[in-house]
């Protein structure tokens, strides 16, 4: 009994400490995190940040370390025991990480001046390349992900794999170095318009959606909730000067629409159902660095629609502000 009381005391202290950390600008954590008593989180440098979404869980002896980098983990993602995530790494929502996974954006420099020892080369020129793991990925036991790798949405990485190259969405990879050994589904073609009521369209609602709705598919009939300020959708390569978006808003919002870096009209949305046909504005703009965080395989195979949600009256974006029913090229 005394041992159990001691364990509960320690765990409560860990949870309290975690919430204290969340008040610091260098560490931001969402609601209901779960940390074990040997979890370790550290940020070094004035520019470093670790940002964690809601309902995140982290196993025994797992580590999150940032050195003047942004380490970001999405909501509903879980890391099992002994996972080591270091540096400029972004992990999406709803991901499953088994134990003993290693991901780092940094590596040692041995070729800058090969006559020098490696430690001295590191001091002269450091190497860091950001890693991005998209939503809904499952990484098996002992996976190593090398710097600069992009792992597409829905991918599965087999146990003890070493990922040295980009992984296409919804593929199954394994081996050393890893290669494609299967597919969860065909992801080479999308649709001119994607609709929330068609199951085959769901994978192309690529970022920013509420995965908890898939616990009750009936909730999808009225739209897929957008719970990030920037959402990404993939449609067929068929760029026209018109795009149609249908949805339901819970309050007054403003939507900025981009397709392949081109800016469409901004639209002001009042509370309730909306259905807009938007025209292309012939100027090239960048939006929230989204296109810098997608692999060339994605950009070359699909038209990428980015929707930025902006609030009125200086309010911050809140979750579940609006739902999307359909989006794409439909001039009817």
TrEMBL record:
SUPFAM superfamilies, per the entry: Trimeric LpxA-like enzymes
Source taxon at top rank: Bacteria
GO terms assigned for molecular function: acyltransferase activity
The entry's keywords: Acyltransferase, Repeat, Transferase
Name of one Pfam family that matches: Hexapep
Protein name: Acyltransferase
């Amino acid at each position: 009994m005394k041992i159990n009381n001691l364990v509960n005391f320690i765990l409560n202290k860990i949870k309290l400490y975690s919430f204290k950390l969340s008040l610091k600008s260098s560490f931001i954590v969402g609601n209901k995190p779960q940390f074990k008593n040997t979890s370790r989180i550290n940020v070094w440098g004035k520019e470093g940040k670790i940002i964690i979404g809601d309902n995140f869980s982290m196993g025994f002896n797992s580590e999150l370390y940032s050195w003047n980098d942004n380490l970001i983990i999405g909501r509903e993602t879980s890391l099992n025991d002994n996972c080591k995530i270091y540096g400029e790494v972004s992990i999406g929502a709803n991901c499953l990480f088994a134990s003993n996974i290693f991901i780092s954006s940094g590596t040692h420099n041995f070729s800058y001046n090969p006559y020098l020892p490696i430690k001295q080369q590191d001091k002269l020129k450091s190497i860091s390349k950001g890693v991005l793991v998209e939503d809904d990925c499952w990484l098996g036991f002992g996976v190593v992900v090398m710097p600069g790798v992009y792992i597409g949405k829905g991918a599965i990485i087999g146990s003890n794999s070493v990922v040295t190259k980009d992984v296409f969405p919804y593929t199954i990879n394994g081996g050393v170095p890893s290669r494609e050994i299967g597919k969860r589904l065909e992801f080479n073609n999308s649709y001119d318009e994607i609709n929330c009521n068609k199951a085959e369209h769901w994978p192309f609602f690529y970022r920013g959606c509420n995965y908890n709705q898939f616990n009750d598919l009936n909730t999808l009939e009225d739209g897929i909730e957008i719970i990030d300020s920037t959402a990404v959708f993939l449609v067929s390569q068929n760029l026209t000067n018109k795009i149609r978006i249908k949805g339901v808003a819970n309050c007054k919002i403003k939507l900025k629409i981009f397709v392949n870096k081109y800016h469409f009209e901004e639209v002001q949305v009042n509370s309730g159902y909306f259905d807009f046909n938007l025209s292309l504005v012939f100027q090239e703009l960048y939006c929230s660095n989204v296109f810098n965080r997608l692999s060339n395989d994605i950009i070359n195979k699909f038209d990428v629609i980015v929707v930025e949600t902006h609030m009125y009256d200086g309010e911050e974006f809140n979750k579940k502000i609006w739902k999307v029913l359909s989006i794409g090229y439909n001039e009817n």
